[in-house]
Amino acid sequence: MITVRPPESIFTVDGRIEHGTFHGRWHFSFDMYRDPEHTHFGPLRVFNDDTLSPGAVWPLHPHREIEVVTYCASGEFRHEDEHGKGGILRKGWVQHTTVGTGLFHSEINNRPDEPMRFIQMWFFPDQPGLSPSVEQKALKREERTDRLLPLVSNHHPEALRIHADAEVLCAFLTSGHEVVHLLRDGHGVYLYVLEGGPVAVNGQALPALGAAKLTDEPQIRIAARNDAELLLVIVGLGRASR
């Protein structure tokens, strides 16, 4: 089954933060956004597409017992935490954080002269009480061109590891190209068109900033009608999947 979420159906919010503003597109219930139809998808708890104005900072704030994956969609993202750990991400780079027993962290637009856009995903961990850690990976666009590139996965040796039954993949598909990914039993996909498109997902059209949730499908087939940047989250559906 495929459930398409058109761009206009996804919650949007604007607000002020330290040294600037943010614009958010939040896919699941988060902060003041409450939607009983979109609370999580398997272990995927949060999928936020946020843009920070030049120099803007989300100040240090605490979290516990989550696995965080951050993907930089444009500009320069900078992460800082209470232990002085973090790093800079550029477009197409990825970071994984195990928050575990607790961590204060901050998301920062590292550039004073241009906006920064990042996708942040939170996952329920597969065990409590993990020690906090941060790791990241730099990637080139050609590595994800016309293929699905695993960013975070426990099944691919080149990907970052995660304490959850989850994988995050990315792709830059050029017009006319198609990719196919076989799905393991009991797993679903959350697909997001970051920019470009439209694409066809198992035959259904999906425009820029649209999302699709796939369950009980043996595979996902994505065909690019125009150049498109994509993120895919593959999750086990042992938890309630609505």
From TrEMBL:
<dbReference type="InterPro" id="IPR041602">
    <property type="entry name" value="Quercetinase_C"/>
</dbReference>
<dbReference type="GO" id="GO:0046872">
    <property type="term" value="F:metal ion binding"/>
</dbReference>
<dbReference type="InterPro" id="IPR003829">
    <property type="entry name" value="Pirin_N_dom"/>
</dbReference>
<protein>
    <submittedName>
        <fullName>Pirin domain protein</fullName>
    </submittedName>
</protein>
<dbReference type="Pfam" id="PF02678">
    <property type="entry name" value="Pirin"/>
</dbReference>
<feature type="domain" description="Pirin N-terminal">
    <location>
        <begin position="20"/>
        <end position="122"/>
    </location>
</feature>
<dbReference type="InterPro" id="IPR014710">
    <property type="entry name" value="RmlC-like_jellyroll"/>
</dbReference>
<dbReference type="InterPro" id="IPR011051">
    <property type="entry name" value="RmlC_Cupin_sf"/>
</dbReference>
<feature type="binding site">
    <location>
        <position position="105"/>
    </location>
    <ligand>
        <name>Fe cation</name>
    </ligand>
</feature>
<feature type="binding site">
    <location>
        <position position="63"/>
    </location>
    <ligand>
        <name>Fe cation</name>
    </ligand>
</feature>
<keyword id="KW-0408">Iron</keyword>
<feature type="binding site">
    <location>
        <position position="61"/>
    </location>
    <ligand>
        <name>Fe cation</name>
    </ligand>
</feature>
<keyword id="KW-0479">Metal-binding</keyword>
<feature type="domain" description="Quercetin 2,3-dioxygenase C-terminal cupin">
    <location>
        <begin position="157"/>
        <end position="232"/>
    </location>
</feature>
<dbReference type="Pfam" id="PF17954">
    <property type="entry name" value="Pirin_C_2"/>
</dbReference>
<feature type="binding site">
    <location>
        <position position="107"/>
    </location>
    <ligand>
        <name>Fe cation</name>
    </ligand>
</feature>
<comment type="similarity">
    <text>Belongs to the pirin family.</text>
</comment>
<dbReference type="InterPro" id="IPR012093">
    <property type="entry name" value="Pirin"/>
</dbReference>
